[in-house]
Structure formats: C-alpha cells, structure tokens
Amino acid sequence: MFDSNGYVDLIARYLEALGYGTGARARRRALQILNDLRVRHGGEIDVSTLLRAAREQAALAESLSERPLPPEEPVRMPPQSFRYGGRGSTRDLVSHAGRNERKGGPITVTR
Amino acid sequence: MPRRDATHLPILRGLIATLTLGSAAVAVVVFMRIIGAEGLLWAHVPMIVLFGVLMLWLCQSIWLALTGFFVVAWRDFRRWWKGPAWKPERPEPAFSPDSAKTAIVMPVYNEDPGRVFAGLEAMLDDLDAAGAGDRFDLFILSDTRNPLVWLAEEEAWAKLRSRDRGRDRIFYRRRVRNEGRKSGNIADFLERWGLNYPFFIVLDADSIMTAETLIEMARRIEAQPTVALIQAPPRPVRAETLFARIQAFSASVYGSLPAAGLAAVADGNGNFWGHNAIIRTEAFIDHCRLPHLPGKAPLGGEILSHDFVEAALLRRAGWEIQLADDLEGSYEESPPTIIDFARRDRRWCQGNLQHGRILAADDLHVSSRLYFASGIMAYSSSLVWLVFLLLGGVEIARRELSETVYFTGEVPTPQWPISMTEAAVTLLVVTMAALLMPKVLALGLALADRERCRRLGGAVRLTLSVLLETLYSALLAPVMMMFHSGFVLSVLAGASVGWGAQRRSGAATDLAEVVRAHLPHTIAGLLAGAAILTWVPGMFWWAFPVLLGLVVSIPLSLVSSSVSLGHFTRRLGLFLADEEVSPPPVLVRLAELEGPSPVGEPAQREALLHRVIHDPRFNLRHIRLLRAYGEFPEADRARLTELRDRVEKEGFSALSTDEMLAVLQDPETMEELHLATWPRSAAGTAARTSAA
To answer: How far is B304 from chain A (nearest CA, A)?
Structure first.
C-alpha cells in the first residue's frame, strides 16, 4: 500500500507508545487503521484523526480485558433525620441539604 | 437483638455503672470535706460540680480498663495453657462457597500516593498469599484536589493494575465534586457500586490490615445476620519520631485493656471509629445517609465526626455493632508530632462537639448517647479541668489572703483553723493510683508473658519504658489540656476547621512552628507559676507538675518530634511495641514497597504534568478514567480553549491549581492537547523522521 506521508510508521509508533502491540504487530494494526480510515474518509487524512483512531482501537482492546470501574448498580441512600420532642413530634432538628445529587437528574433506584 | 449467651451483660453493665457512680461519689464527698472544712459556701458549688464531672470521667475509664484487664488476662491465660500458637477457634473455610466478593474501599484526599498504593499492594499480596485474593475487590476513592497528587494516584493505580494483569479487582475513581467529605465519598461509592457487594471494608489512607483479619471480619459478619458493622480497633504502627513511638508503645502495651473492657461491656452496642471496619452494605445504604445539621459550621452543616453518627443510626434501626478487640491485625499510623496530633484533635473536637446537637434526639439507643457524651467529654474534660484548676487557685488564694479569725461572737474559746492536708493528700494519692492502675496492670500482663516480655526488651527495659512514658504523659497532659480547652472555646466561638490532608510520616518539626504552637502554653505556665509564688507559695509544689509541663512544652515538642531520638530509643530497646519487634508480613511488605513520594521533587511534578499530555498511554488512561466516572464540571469552552492555548505555549506549570484542575477534568481539552502536541514531541518527531 502507498504510504507517502509515513503514516503507517507514525501510527505504529503511536500504538507502541499506547502499549498496544510492538514491532510488526503494531505495523499490521497501523496499516489496518489507515485502510479503514481511507475507506471511511477517502482523500487526505489529518494526523489528529489518525491518532484518534489509534486511541479508539487501543482503548477498545483494553476495555475488553480491563475496566477502569465496574458496572454501576445505582441506588439512592434515603436521607436520615433526627427528631426531638417524643413520638409524633414534628420538630425536626435536622435538614437534608442535597448531597451527592448527581448531574443529570435523580438516580433510579433499582433494588 | 441480644445474643443468647449475653445474659451476664446486664449484671456486668450494672456493676460497672455502680462502681463508677460509687467511686466518683466517694471522691466528691471527700473533696467536699476538704473544700468545706471551714464551712461550705455557695461559691464552692461550681468547683464541686466540676470535680464530680472529672471524677465520673476518670472512674468510668478506670473501671472499663479494669474489666479489660480481666478479659485480656483470661485470654492470655488460655493462650499460656494451650501453648503460644493457640488461637480461638475459627470455622473453616473463611467464606462459604456462595459468598459474594467483599469490597475494600480506601477514601483518599491529597495523601502521598506512594504510601497509599504501597499499603494496598502489601494487603493484596497478603490476601493472595492467604488464597483469598479473588474474594475482595479494591476501590481507591479519591477526593484529591491537588492535580499533581491526582495524576500520581492514576499512575500508581495503573502500575498496580499492570502488576495484577488479568485480575479485574482494583478500581480507581476520583470525584469531581467532593461534597460530604469522607462520608460523602463513601456514599458516592455505595450509590454507584455498593449493591455489587454485600459487605465493604472501610480503610483510612494510612490503614493496614492483615489478610487474616480481613478474612475473619468478612467471615464473622456473614455468619451473624443481625450484625451491621464490626470494628477492628487499629493499633498505631510504623512510628519513627519519639512522640509516635511512645504513642505506639502505650497503645501496644496498655491499649488492649480499655478496648477489651469496652468490647466486653458493649457486646452488640459497639461503636464505629471511621475505618478498619467491615460494614453490611444494605444496612448502611438504608440508614446512614447523613443529614446536614441546621446552621453553619462549626456546630452546624456537614457532620465531621460521621462515624459515631453512622453507628448511632445503625443501632437506631436495630442493627448490632461489634467491637472485635480480639482481632490483632488492624493498624494505622499515628501523627508524628504533638502538633500534628493536636491538629487532628482540632478536627475531631469540632466533630464531637457537633454531636451535642443530636445527643438527645428521639429513638437513639442509650449506648449511642453514651458514645456521643464520651466523645464530647474527650475534649471538654480538658476545659473542665482548666476551669477547675483556676477556681481552685482562686479559692486557695482567697483563704491565704484572708485573715484567720480565732474568736467569733460570744464564744470564749479560739476557733483553730482545720487542716485538711491529710485528706487532700489521700485524695491525690488515690486519684494518682487510679490513673496509674491500668498501666501497672498492663505492665503486669506483659511481664507475666515471658516471650512477649523478652520481645519488648526484657523486664528492665519494659518497666523503664513504662516509667518514662508515664513521665512523658504527665508532662504532656497539661499541654493537651491547653490545646483542647482552646479548641473547645474556639468551636464554641464559631471558628471552623478546614479539610486538610493529615501529615502522617515522621519528620522533625520546624522550630518556628513549635514556638508558634507552644508559646502561649509556656507563657501561661510562667505567669501561673509567678502568681502562685507571689500569693500562695505554699501551693507551688502542688501545682508544679502542671506548671512544668507547660513551661517545657517547647523543648518537649521539639525533642519528641525527633526521628533520630525515636531511632535512638529503639536502639536502646525502649518503647518497643509488639508490631515493631515482630511485624506481621503485611507490614514488612509495606516497608519493602514504599518509596519516596512520587510528587516530592519539583522535577517529578514537572514530569507528571508533561507525561499526562505527551505520553499517549497516560493521556488515554486519564481520559478513560474521567469518562468511566462520567461526571464532569460545567464546561466553559471559551475559557478551556484559552487555557489549552496557554498550556501549549507555556506548559502546564504556567497554570494555577484551579486552572490545572479545569483542564485535567475536561476529557476533550486533554485529548486536544495531546493530539496537538504529540506529533511535535520527541516521540512524534522520531516517528516522522523515521518515516521520512
């Protein structure tokens, strides 16, 4: 395959730096990435697009074996309070300032 | 939910309560006789009340320690009878085959990543060696705000994961917004991943636990469905300074007595100390989301000492809490100097005083109220003692300065002043004996165990260590009284404490810092001494122990913060703690793994900032972690673009901490920076050159 810009070498080195293959294996993967990109984009491809594609490949491969975090099992901890003045009293000393409110709305309780 | 074999508990609790109240009452009566020898005045009432409070506080701790003595002595006797290798029977296997994994969670906040990850690796190695490595998942829950420490944490996590390749059990996440401090950090974990684990073990950044203890805690809580929390009392280890070594020594030799006494009396009414404990996840989720107290800090707002409150909420819901004082492999590191110790106490003091707001709330278990009261007294007793001393001084001065009246009214015979010196001396001697009794009993236990006595330096060195520790404690007591009194007053005056990382490693204290901290104590000691010598010279020697501690507080603090003196006393065989002379494998491994801080040197800090942009693997990992957590601050794209341009031109270190955080927290900016700079960086240039 014609590689006038030295892109295969660039991607291969990048993949090596990512820890996703070395030597011939990295070059094979680089070639594959470049081919895929050419099919998708055609014409000129900028370096950022190449590197981004290499990162996606590496991240995908890594995510199959290593997860940064396990799957979430969302649940909401119900707020607690302290009451005074005997049973039935409505005097509630404690406020429930919203803590741990996540962006994007409330969490669904799945339990 | 009392257990069937706990029928002796009401008797034991009643006995200790009676002994505490009885002995305090006797002391108060004797004191009233002394102070009221020439007639009781209304002005004496505050002193009597304060004395009563102090005596109650002292007596309960002494009777608990005495109870603990019998528990530990019985345990030691059984060990001696059955041989040194004997341990209480523990069913095998450690877990049932159906057991789910237990999560070990370590919240961190700007801690030294070198120490944190070395400790975690040591514990994982210990668990693997025990064949239980796959029964635990590990979560590093970062609330770190220092960008360099954050990056170093990510790198240390990646290193640990790579060592652990193929085993999906070590997880790292950093919160973008650290609401709720440590309890909010734990709550965030529980709300996301808690339901994956029936139990979780909470550690502090300086916690270390042996695999045996981790496994045993998991086994115990699984076997007891009514128990929500088991606390393994942590012992201080890895002490280097003289101060920390003395603390570790006293915890090692005497510490087991009060813990065993409390555990015996509490049974299922134990308490939570914030870490080194296993918790039933569902119970905690259902009952332990802490409310905010109304009003502003220091007495309102977020609850700082969250652990006692969480324990109270669990007890309120009917769950049991156990204090597993028989589990030995539970460790932490103590502050290296008096000033660090006091700094930590300032935070705890504020948190404990907040408990006064909920002490009388409805439906709390009586044990929870006692723990709250005890936590408040841990600091307030110093103020009580100080006020008592001041009132005592005024009373004595009043007597000394007033003229003795021998003849009153129509009575023809002289009224001789009544001397109560003998009673006062008796009261002092009895009080001192009571204070020293736990130490003497603990020393007796250590001496009776020949093997342990030999390990701890032999009978002479061990006894000498106890004597020196007692002297040191006596000198330190008035200094801590002044610190704590100041803390209580400052909290009551509305001063709040911030959230800072704790200094944990041994380092000699800076002279200016020591003088700043202790000069008020020294001046107070000198002024009080001068006043006593001027107006009531007869009282000088009575007040001498308190005055001496205050006057020498600066040299005392300096000397005890010395690492070399800590090492020197170790070479002399003084203040040897059990774990120091025969450390468990997990502590040995930690010492092997721990290196210098990865953010200690400026060059290291520069390198970290460089790598997160230029190193493809580091950069990708950083972004993946951000995206995996999935929470991002509100992004001001224009500002981020401007910051990105500055980083490209001037480097990361040109940004302020907040600016660095803004860039590091935004995955898009981090990727753009990397993609723009990598081709120009050395690796990129090499790649292009080679390609050409």
So the answer is: 14
CA distance B484 to chain A (A): 27
Q: Which residue of A has its CA nearest to B302?
A: A97
Distance CA B187, CA B189 (A): 5
Given a contact cutoff of 8 angstroms between Cβ atoms, the answer to whether B361 and A93 are in contact is: yes
The parent domain of residue A48 ranges over 7-65
Predicted interface score ipTM higher than 0.95: no
Tokens read off for B129: 């060696």
Query: Residues B92-123, buried b or exposed e (16+ Cβ, 10 A)?
Result: eebbeeeeebbbbbbbbbbbbbbbbbbbbbbb
CB B610 within 8 A of CB B652: yes
* Inter-chain CB proximity A74 and B191 less than 8 Å: yes
Q: Is B88 left (phi over 0), alpha (psi -120 to 50) or beta?
A: beta
Whether residue A96 is contained in a domain is answered as no
What token pair was written down for B656?
């302020």
Helix (H) / strand (E) element for B195: namely none
Query: For A12-21, how does the pLDDT look when each residue is reduced to its tens digit (9 = 90+)?
Result: 999 998 888 8
- Residue A56 in any domain: the answer is yes
Task: Tell me the per-residue pLDDT of B34-46, one tens digit each, with 9 for 90 and over.
Answer: 888 878 888 899 9
| Residue B578, token pair as written in the block | 């059990």
* Residue A23 in domain: yes
CB contacts of B161 in chain A (<8 Å) are 66
A109 interfacial to chain B (CB closer than 8 Å): no
CB contact (8 A) between residue B292 and residue A52: no
B487 in contact with A at a CB cutoff of 8 Å? no
**How many domains is chain A built from?**
1
Q: Would you call the peptide bond into B298 cis, given omega within 30 degrees of 0 as the criterion?
A: yes
Name the residue among B313, B620, B692 with its Cβ closest to that of A80.
Answer: B313
Q: Would A75 be classed as within a structural domain? A: no
Q: How far is B350 from chain A (nearest CA, A)?
A: 18
Q: Are B59 and B19 spatial neighbours (Cβ–Cβ below 8 Å)?
A: yes
pTM of the full predicted structure? 0.90
